[in-house]
Amino acid sequence: MTLFAVPSLRLATWNVNSLKVRLPHLLAWLHARTVDIVCLQETKLADESFPVQDLLDAGYRCHFAGQKTYNGVAILLRVASVGVADAVIPALPDFDDSQKRLIALTVEGMRIVCGYFPNGQAVGSEKYAYKLQWIKALTQWLRGEISSHDRLALLGDFNIAPEARDVHDPVLWEGQILCSDAEREGFRGLLALGLRDAFRLFEQPERSFTWWDYRELAFRRKMGLRIDHILLSAALAGLCTGCEIDVELRRQERPSDHAPVVATLTSP
DNA sequence: ATGGCATGACAATCATGA
């Protein structure tokens, strides 16, 4: 029995930090690495500026919700391996938000949710309160989505390092933004919906991170955080045969400060 | 020392990221 049109599917998430700047990196990566469903964050592009044709030429259909300068999310679907999406929503329902941080769609029987969680700036700030509200609204909405979709994946830049082992220096970051108790509680609240952290389904190298500050040679010094995640419902976690961080992309010329995370789902 | 670097909007600096 096959669940998908192809024996296995790769799901990926990558905060590109400007799709305009990173389009050549993205196209090269799509060409080199067969990924079927790609969630992007921080595209920083208005919808009319989205490079639809470049991506179609590369073999991907695009769904996106963007704005100028900040935020912006997209889901790319590889034409050769997955069908046409439906039930596309360009925002979190029932949450009044001028910031483009969520897009979701259904494809191959899976509900795919791409999120760019707020950064939060500093614990106790207004942006921090907004972050916690956003996470709460997401969690409430997902509760309903999961009840109607056995196969659901939440991918994105969560801006949360869930545990001490996800932080290069847990003592330095203790209680700081991305690592505070309330943020980690929010992450656990998502797991409590029945989602699994795909990366932690497998043995992983120590000091595995997805983001490194541009400053202070942070990447070279392995000073990073694991804040980009793929969470899978039980039905999809059971099909997951691997999950890796594509660290190579952080080594390139003019890189994004985030590296992609890729999970493989294999039909039984 | 609250900076550093990168991006975008804008036209010299400034907001934001994490």
Numbering strands along the chain, what is their spatial order in the largest sheet?
Answer: 3-4-2-1-14-13
Strand content: 25-35%
Uncertain stretches of 5 or more adjacent residues: none
Reported for the largest beta sheet, the result is: 6 strands, mixed
**Total helical segments:** 6
Coarse structural class: alpha+beta
* Helix fraction bin: 10-25%
Total beta-strand segments: 14
Shape: globular
Mean pLDDT figure: 97
- If you compute it from the alpha carbons, what radius of gyration comes out, rounded to the nearest whole angstrom? 17 Å
How many angstroms does the end-to-end distance come to?
Answer: 7 Å
List the helices and strands and how they pair.
Blueprint lengths: L7 E8 L3 H14 L4 E5 L10 H6 L2 E6 L7 E6 L7 E4 L12 E6 L2 E7 L9 H23 L3 E6 L12 H4 L7 H11 L3 E3 L13 E2 L11 E2 L2 E6 H4 L2 E6 L15 E6 L2
Parallel strand pairs: 1-2, 7-8
Antiparallel strand pairs: 1-14, 2-4, 3-4, 5-6, 6-7, 8-12, 9-12, 10-11, 13-14
Helix pairs in contact: 3-5
This protein binds one DNA strand of 18 nucleotides through loops.
Describe the protein in words.
The protein is of the alpha+beta class and 268 residues long. The chain has helices spanning 19-32, 52-57, 126-148, 170-173, 181-191, 234-237, and strands at 8-15, 37-41, 60-65, 73-78, 86-89, 102-107, 110-116, 152-157, 195-197, 211-212, 224-225, 228-233, 240-245, 261-266. The strands form three sheets. Strands 3-4-2-1-14-13 form a six-stranded mixed beta sheet. It has a six-stranded mixed beta sheet with strand order 5-6-7-8-12-9. Helix 3 (126-148) packs parallel to helix 5 (181-191). It starts with 7 loop residues before the first strand and ends with a strand. It binds one DNA strand of 18 nucleotides through loops.
